[in-house]
Amino acid sequence: MKRSPSTQRYWRSLKELEGTEEFQELLAAEFPAGPEEDWTETSRRRFLQVMGASLALGAAASCRFSEERLVPKASRDADEVPGKPTFFSSAFELGGFAQPVVLTCYEGRPVKVEGNPDHPDSLGATSIFAQAAVLDLYDPDRSREPVRYDGGVERLLGYEGWKQWEAWAGPHFDALAAKGGEGLVVWAPVSRSRVLARQREEFRRRFPKARWLAWDATVSTAERDGCRMAFGEPLRPRYRLDKARVVLTLADDLLDGRPDSLRLAREFAAHRRPEEGWVSRLYAVEGGFSVTGGNADHRLPLRNEQIEAFLAVLEAKLVAGGLEHPQPVEVEDAEPALHAAGLEEFVDALAGDLLRHPGQCVVTVGPQLPAAVHARAQRLNVLLGAVGETVDYLPESRELRADDESLLAFAREAAAGKVDTLVVLGGNPAYDTPGELGFAELMGAIANKVHLGAYRDETALLSDWHLPIAHPFESWTDGQAADGSHVIGQPAIDPIWAGRTVSEIVSVMLGEKKSAMELVREATGLGETAWRKAVQDGFVAGSAPRPVKVQAGRLAPPKFEPELLAEERDNGELEVAFRLGTVLDGRFANNGWLQELPDPITKLTWDNAAVMGFATAEALGVTDFEKIRLSLGGGSVELPVLRVPGVARGVVQVELGYGRTAAGHVAGLNDDAVEPVGVDVNPLRSLASPWFVVGGEVTRLGGHYPLATTQDHHAIDAVGYAEREGRVPELVREATVQEYHENPLFAKRAPDGWGPEASIFEELPLEGEYRWGMAIDLSVCTGCSACTIACQAENNIPVVGKEQVLKGREMHWIRMDRYFTGDLENPRAAHQPLTCQQCELAPCESVCPVAATVHSSEGLNDMVYNRCIGTRYCSNNCPYKVRRFNYLNFRKDLWKKGNEILRMVNNPEVTVRSRGVMEKCTFCVQRIQAARRDAAVEQRNIREGEVQTACQQVCPTGAIVFGDLNDSESAVSKAHANTRAYRLLGELNDKPRNRFLARIRNPHPALLALEEAARGQEAVHHG
Amino acid sequence: MAEECVAPALESERIERAEREGLYPPPLVTGNTDIKAVTEIVSRVAELPRPPKIWYVLFAIAVALLGTLGTMIVYLIATGVGVWGNNQPVAWGWPIVNFVFWVGIGHAGTLISAILFLLRQGWRTGINRFAEAMTIFAVICAGMFPAIHVGRIWVIYWVFPIPNQMAMWPNFRSPLLWDVFAVSTYFSVSLLFWYMGLVPDLATLRDRAVSKARRFWYGLFALGWNGSNRHWHRYEKAYLILAALATPLVLSVHSVVSFDFAVAQLPGWHTTIFPPYFVAGAIFSGFAMVLSLAIPARKVFKLEHLITERHVDLMCRVILATGTMVGYAYAMEFFMAWYSGNRYEGFTFINRATGPYWWAYLIMVSCNVISPQLFWSKRIRTNMVLVFIISIFVNIGMWFERFVITVTSLSRDFLPSSWGYFSPTIVDVLTLLGSFGLFFTLFLLFCRYLPQVAISEVKNVMPEAHPHVHPEDH
After folding, report:
1. What residues contact residue A722 under an 8 Å CB cut-off, 6+ apart?
2. Which of B170, B327, B350, B441 has its CA 20 to 30 A from that of B225?
3. If pLDDT is split at 50, 70 and 90, which confidence band does A755 have?
4. Is the domain of A698 the same as that of A737?
5. What are the tens digits of pLDDT across the range A107-148?
6. Residue B231 covered by a domain
7. pLDDT at A29 over 90
8. Would the pLDDT of A648 be above 70?
9. Does residue A125 contact residue A955 with C-beta atoms inside 8 Å?
10. Are A869 and B151 in contact (CB < 8 Å)?
């Protein structure tokens, strides 16, 4: 069932304007450089172009929908079939980038988010946040009406509250305008929306003395500033991994932590399958352990503060190796640093690889590192010939996020009582700003505070007015995707509560009162046909800007810091690194799906912790689940410890977004005695170094604080540890590229079709029309866990909460197994998504006393929920332990008063299970059935690719393949025929329908030899 | 009068033979107790106006625990099986451990009454009533657990092959279904066997009754027994047939219970040694429980002359034999795990002994393998206090055996990613204690109102039953 917006019934395009090429060209030319077009440099030709376009668009803009409101589903349209989903392309902004998505709607309500298959940033894949966004839409804790706070008294105003607010706002802002906006501060979201950019300009015209401060706790401007240092203009790099043979990431979670990680992961995957040609090599240098680090062929744990020094010695090494450099580099000076840190081999291998592949390599830097590192790395990319090949540069907004000076200036003014009106349009500054700013206290000194937000959160509680924001899926929005294209987000549902958009609020402040749709449409400046097409597509085709040409300039000479590279950090000078996890900066804190989604590496749910390496923990004398006090500068927080292998020595990593006190009933709500989930670490942050700071001190507090991890629920003993080490190579089969070429059948064992497959009894033939099967390519699975949450959204999988996760009762149908192997301080990680393997000889089926789990003729291991009595025998007999049991009524929340809205998120195609029932993956049987119905109507067979499982659809790298094994041409048949294909636990002869494709690594031969020597030595040592 | 009736005993022939061959065993009834005295000793307990004080104390405790059990079950049904410690991967926890434990205990009764009857073991008569009652009550406790441990107890009847409009049958391939049949059959046959054996003794109590109510109730259940030759004739035949029917059940029920594990492919469960190993273990635990009950009971109710030291001695020997078999099975499991060369199998057993549950394994081995070895000494076998203590040890050990098999195997199976750990909740603990409450409530009621020793059968093995053997006594 391919879900494409082109199948939409609603947005049938008009043909009139199509085909006039000049018109299209004019459109494409209109906003070539994004919304921050610098008009002062407009040429005469350009001026005329724009004039022409304006005329054309002015005419087109007059064709307008007569009625803008969405049609309520009280009566059915003539051609609407109940139960048939409709699809709408939409978008929502995250960290300043719009995520192009397609919403699947049943009877007028969005229930599932997919990536926009037509947009190059997505191609159908989505991040975990996009998947979970739909749960936010139906969050019962969302605020439902305007609220007035009067001297600590909360007054819910109902829908009429908007009128009251407008009555207040109109004269208030008029008065402010009369004063030139003095004392007015707008706290805006970081956004690349053209609507907002225009409104900002108008705002500045109306309120010249006001401040417009854009803030987003997740956004760093270091990348842009680094480019400005290196190239003289604000740019942002766009990496192209499909051409990169060698990739070096510096504390950069390239595959999971960037706005365009979906595309990057896909491009990375393009060269990790050895059958398809060359295999890239990924080097990761990082302090924490990221998804990218887990996929690296070589990973070097270094503290963030050391990375600049590392880059300096690498650069010197490259110059020594013959790299042309615009500046003289004292190559010899680098040697002592290298030697001191014991990095010679690593840097030698890396430099050699980079030099061997000019134009086919790239160096990437995490946005959390300082601008200087970015500058150096981006210049290196130029020198390595990467520009135009593996990286290009897109124009970047000059005012992305308010700079530190204006934030501090605002703080000073507010403290001095010079701020009269604060309008918070985005974020949750009372919670998510660095402690240094003391935002919450500042609010006390401001006379009028207006807060627009989805929740009555920490900021709302300190405001005078709280206005509910419309969810992106309820509103007209626009923005820029990571590739720079202009994205349009249409609503798929009328605002459920009385929400309005940011643009509508600003519009009121501007005294114009335009609707969001008008504003978006104006911003696109498209004619009727093009507008309709853009809305249907979800973005304006061809609106991505062209890359900017850059040249390597001069930078400050590199500093070789042998001491820094070699130095260990002791207690008191630990590096505290801030990280964004599954709830980001706390905006998704009240999203149960994301709270319960295990972190891909730590497997931690429902908490943040002081994550540190084993050596660090040993040096500090602390261990897992022990509470510590982490002090830094003036602030301190109390956190439990979680040891994770491979975190650099001396680094303590903490996640943002926890410890919310007014998030909601999921993440913490003081007003209703809901304990906060995790600990707020914002008090430790500062504006100057928001992402890592040296100088952390750990004090042991003792006590036991259980952390709910979904793997290694309990600290493992020596016996178990040894056994796990022994088993992993058999479970996650791996080979190097060289080993693969020597023996492409390396992953095969006797039961994988390379030996006799006799059964001791006569098997029932499976004679269905289709033989559904799956294949998961471990070589390209990054472990990002989007599949887990896509499955949760598709299959109505309940959230069980921390207590139940601690007991081992999480319900995820597809889980991401993560194994570490090798050295505790620098291990290799392997990921393996595990779902029901749909065994042909399913061990679960024969043991069920009531035949509640049975086999279909097409090879599915069906689960009949309403037959299940809950003996749990099937789970005991499942060697993969992929069955999930409803130990309690995990859907009680649906029946709580006030939570009715939460029921709307459930997929009507899938049963909502109650307590006492076993459940598990069904290969999205509801999607198979939907495709079967369509095929039956059209009197044909289900086509290849017509059925996509939810996990497959969301996977950015295409690691999961699903289809009909009867069709020898299907992708899944080919995957099963791949020489790397193997059956997990095949020796049990359960004949799983899923096969894993063994993982391929591409280590540098010299480093591999070193690694093996070290392992050999260790073996001797232990022997 | 019933008490004067002596059944034409099958034992008589054996005793005759033994006498002839000079192998006459020591007497099974001591203290110059004659036939009338046997009736008197046994019936007196049921006829006392008030039972001993200790009975009241124990009964109060048992009923309190029974109440706890009821509360726990109501809480469980209202909330869900999540009130226990079960999780993924350990989807079966204490309820199944308790089930196997109680079923195991329920083995001694029928073994004593049926198999020892067929084997002409005269000493069984002193303890069989007791043991059979224990069996019934243990099986009641056992049967309760699988019923309450399912997720949706309100549709538990789906496990029975009841014709329905959906034409939906249970899955006959599932060992759990075999369990349903095996346990329910065992329970019905045991109950029948026990009740049938009770009929002549109920008639005795009826005849001795002084109140109308007692006469009515005992009379009702005595089914009009009058001790006629014809009655005895039919009784003996039926008893023999039921014994023959019950004998295979003794072996089958625990074999089937073991299939719950052996048929699964989980390492630590999937093994062919389980049926004999489970049966031996069941007899082992059953006899231990009989001793745990009989030793105090003979003291409290003054039955020392009927349940003699010899009886205890013989039961200890059975415990020694079966305990050694169980020990052999433990060793053989390890050998097979190693010999199979299967990584998963091998690890399961190393993990049992040295993994996170090493303490459970240690308790199991010391209680089940080491402690019964003390029974090689006759001094210990006849020391009632020591025997009682060891029998308690065996009971503890056998509970832990089921815990080790069920929980440790599940907690660490094939994929290390899904390894877990099981911790019981307070509800688990109270439910187990509550099941003892149920057991002891029933047992204490039995002690109070029914003949604890099979009067007529004991008389059969007394010398007086064989006038031509001991003419001088007649």
Report:
1. none
2. B441
3. very low
4. no
5. 888 999 998 888 888 888 888 999 999 999 999 999 988 999
6. yes
7. no
8. yes
9. yes
10. yes
Backbone phi, psi, residue B262, to 5°: -65, -30
The answer to whether the Cβ–Cβ distance between A719 and B414 falls below 8 Å is no
A:B CB pairs within 8 Å: 180
Gap between the terminal Cα atoms of chain B: 18
Inter-chain CB proximity B151 and A872 less than 8 Å: yes
**pLDDT digit string, tens, across residues B257-266:** 999 999 999 9
Residues 6+ apart with CB under 8 A from B40: none
Residue B397 in domain: yes
**Residues A255, A380 within the same domain:** yes
Spatial distance between the Cα atoms of A988 and A984, rounded to a whole number of angstroms: 9
Q: Helix B384-403 crosses helix B358-365 at what angle (to 10 degrees)?
A: 140
Select the residue from A624, A845, A869, A891 to test the B interface by mutation, using most B Cβ atoms within 10 A. A869
What is the pairing mode between strands A610-612 and A668-669?
unpaired
Picking from A374, A395, A416, the residue at the C-terminal end of a domain is A395
A113 and A178 assigned to the same domain: no
Structural domain range at position B111:
2-463
Q: Which residue has the tokens 């899944």?
A: A972
B43-82 confidence digits (pLDDT tens): 887 888 888 888 899 999 999 999 999 999 999 999 999 9
- Which two three-digit tokens encode residue A611? 């994550």
Nearest to A713 among B85, B169, B421 (CB): B421
pLDDT at A757: 58
Please report whether residue A526 resides in a domain.
yes
Residue ranges making up the domain that contains A944: 718-757+772-1001
Given CB atoms, is A889 within the 8 Å cutoff of chain B? yes
How close is the nearest chain A Cα to the Cα of B407, in Å? 10
Counting beta carbons within 10 angstroms of the beta carbon of residue A638, is it exposed (0 to 12), middle (13 to 18) or buried (19 or more)? Answer: middle
Min CA distance, B293 vs chain A (Å)? Answer: 33
Chain B residues in contact with A723 (beta carbon < 8 A): 347, 350-351, 416
- The answer to whether A850 contacts B87, with C-beta atoms less than 8 Å apart, is no
Instruction: Give me B38's structure tokens.
Output: 């046997």
Q: How many CA atoms lie within 13 A of B158 on its CB side?
A: 23
| A182 φ/ψ sector (left φ>0, alpha ψ -120 to 50, else beta) | beta
Residue B473 lies in a domain: no
Provide the 10 A C-beta neighbour count for residue A1013: 10
Question: CA dihedral defined by A347, A349, A355, A358, rounded to 10 degrees?
Answer: -110
- Which residue among A834, A869, A889 sits closest to B158, beta carbon to beta carbon? A869
Q: Minimal Cα distance from A810: which residue of B?
A: B88
- Can you spell out the DSSP letters for A292-351? HHHH-SEEEE--GGGHHHHHHHHHHHHHHTT---SS---HHHHHHHHHHHT-HHHHHHHH
Number of compact structural domains in chain B: 1
Task: Answer whether B353 touches A (CB < 8 Å).
Answer: no
Beta bridge partners of A479: A487
Per DSSP, the residues of A944-1005 read TTT---HHHHH-TT--EEEEETTSTTSHHHHHHHSTTEE-TTGGG----SEEEEPEEE---H
- The answer on pLDDT for A918 being more than 60 is yes
Does A808 contact B87 at a Cβ distance shorter than 8 Å? yes
Q: Which of A848, A879, A885 sits opposite B151 (nearest CB)?
A: A885
Residue A18 has pLDDT above 70, yes or no: no
Residue B86, Cα to own-chain centre: how many angstroms? Answer: 27
pLDDT tens, A773-797? Answer: 999 999 999 999 999 999 999 999 9
CA count, 13 A, side-chain hemisphere, A495:
20
Contacts of A990 in chain B (CB under 8 A): 265
Residues 918-947 of A with CB under 8 A from B: 918
Would you say A437 and A683 are in contact if contact means Cβ atoms under 8 Å apart?
no
- Does this model's pTM top 0.90? no
